[in-house]
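ARCHIVE RECORD
Type: protein–small molecule complex
Small molecule: dioxothiomolybdenum(VI) ion
Source of inputs: curated submission
Record status: active
Notes field left blank by submitter.
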Amino acid sequence: MSEIAQLTPGPRQRHGSNIGQPLTRADGRLKVTGAAVYAADNHPDGLLHAVIVPAKIARGRVTSLDVAAARAHQGVVEVMTPENRPPLAMDPYEKSNPLMFRMHLLSDPTVRYAGEPIAVVIAETLEAAKEGAALLAPRYEADTPEVTLDAEPYTPEAVGPGQPAEATKGDVDAGFAAAAQVIEAVYETPPQYHNAMEPHAVVARFDGDTLFLDMPTQGLAMSRMRIAGLFGLNPENIHIRSPFLGGGFGSKGSVSSPEALGILAALLTGRPVKLVLAREEMFGPVGHRGQTRQTVRLGIDAEGALTALDHLTRAATSRFDDFLEPSSGVGQSLYNVPALHTAHEGVRIDIGTPSFMRAPGEASGSIALESAIDEAAYAAGMDPLAFRLKNYAEVEPISGKPFSSKALKECYREGAERFGWAGRPLQPRQMRDPSGRLLGWGMATAIFPAIMFQGNARAVLRRDGTGVMEAGAHDMGQGAWTAFAQIAADSLGLPVEAVDFRSGTSDLPDAGLAGGSSHTATAGNAIHRAGAAVIDKLASLAVADERSPLFGAGNVGVVAREGRLTRRDDETATESFADILTRAGLEEIAAEGQAASDAAAQEAYAMHAHGAVFAEVAVDPELGQIRVNRLVGAFAAGRVINPRMVESQYLGGMIWGLSFALHEKAVHDRRSGRIVNANFAEYRVPVNADIQGLEAILVPEEDPHVNPLGIKGVGEIGITGTGAALANAIFHATGKRVRSFPIGLAEVV
Ligand code: MOS
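STRUCTURE (tokenized, with ligand):
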């Protein structure tokens, strides 16, 4: 991956340090010239093409497949069905941790959701595979599916990736009894599908017991373990390359059935196989954000202070696995409230299993809760920002812990100032633009936990004055390569150009999952530690050697900068890395670093990134057309490694929030259970023409507790807050409170 370490330095703000600089993307040139090799771009010799055959019913069983007709088609090599699917080393239904999803993998003829793979056709060309698939002409015995939230609910033990389903603090009944007013409302969020531009893809090649995979993944090590378990392979013998992802958003965190089926097809045929999903095939087997129905109750006293908060979410999961969108949790950390209760209930319906999708829980939960907070502000007769400041949490409500850092007040202030919030009339329908459209201003709070997993990295210093940093990290398009190369260069005391940053394969040290907005914290701190460890080794060589000008300085008495070690107390006592290694007779030295979240700090502090989003909408009073004029987000998320990448993450997140409020919705046909808009024409996401006036403000925040580099995540927070800010702006424009998302034209006139 050395080619992607060719960084273009941007304007320098602080001399001598790469961290904090707005470097342009390390992989930018490769991407804009089409030179970046994505998984599906690989064509090993003897390659076969596989397609999945998705079920056209949502519940029942396959009664016949015309395998003979498909096999007889020119170019078709094999048809994989439950009859001939190669045996696996473990039942794909088994699940040993909550990040693992149950899979079917042609285990039987049962159909559990529309789009479930019922066969795989493998051919010499993609066209032949598709034609063979069409000839299979499946017949079904169909049962009546349930695809709505109206099914009988059950009480789950856990939601999301193993979070408690219910939490209580204080006396909620007493809190509501003490309230001057109780605001209660029900919000609905639809099923949403990740729809990364790059579909799920795998190119699989066996060489004996060794498996080579080109496959986009947000979790190299996790994917390797999952595949090792399924196929009974030694993890060391599985080599996954994932240098670039065309987006993941949570859907590429866990191995899903299409990738596993691609590997099975390679096993069955004994030849390399490529399997790439078509757009419509991504609506089912690779996860989605499950639909929710959320009931929020807020008690407020005569002064507008919250007395109680109750948030109940009903969420959907599949018939065969558990992933409930953890929407109710968001209020546990947001506002000062003496009593709160958050709970979830599940319904099992005939859909593919929901999974992590950008800000799982926080996105769907905050659009409901922050709408309810806006409703409460109106009930209290208060400005929505003043209401939030009145209820500002100085400690985390659920735990009573202080925040490791919380620059939310600064976010409110800077966002409001930039937006011009101060001139806002309190009542709705007070503003119009020159063409007569209703104008509305709304705002909401953004929050996302600062998460960190365990990660590793390995650093090398070479006699020629260059360095290497190896970390099996993931660039999903967020700019990870660039930010990590910056951290690597600073940790090694080298310019970025002198560091060969290697990443994106499972053969490198496991640098942790790219999920939960944790990757920069996890891999970044591991890289920082590996760099410090190799510099420490180098310093030991110098300070113990009488021939070095650094002799006797002690390891802590020297600093690494521009390829040299220099005494902290005497700038003239300095020696190049190259000289130190040459004298020691070494070509290179290496060291490893590991980072993980600090249990003691976790115990002592609540750790979150915060933000405030302000929105202006224009609504046509006759047609209901909604136009987003302006969106200003101000976010504080600890140390910023690269402001250009961070701003881009915030803007991308805010566009997702806009999409949540106004565009995205998968629509099920209730009779067949199929999704009727499984394509980019009808599953609406914002296009450039929908986006204008976007601005992200990076509010400075220093966090001495969250991790050594003080990094919080930035990938997911932008989607939180934004959706509700828009819903609240639409209320301010029209006086119509829409509680079902996305907000449509018909509901606002
Ligand atoms: Mo994310 S939904 O943790 O990739």
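CURATOR ANNOTATION: Residues 218, 248-250, 253, 356-358, 360, 515-516 surround dioxothiomolybdenum(VI) ion (CB under 6 Å).
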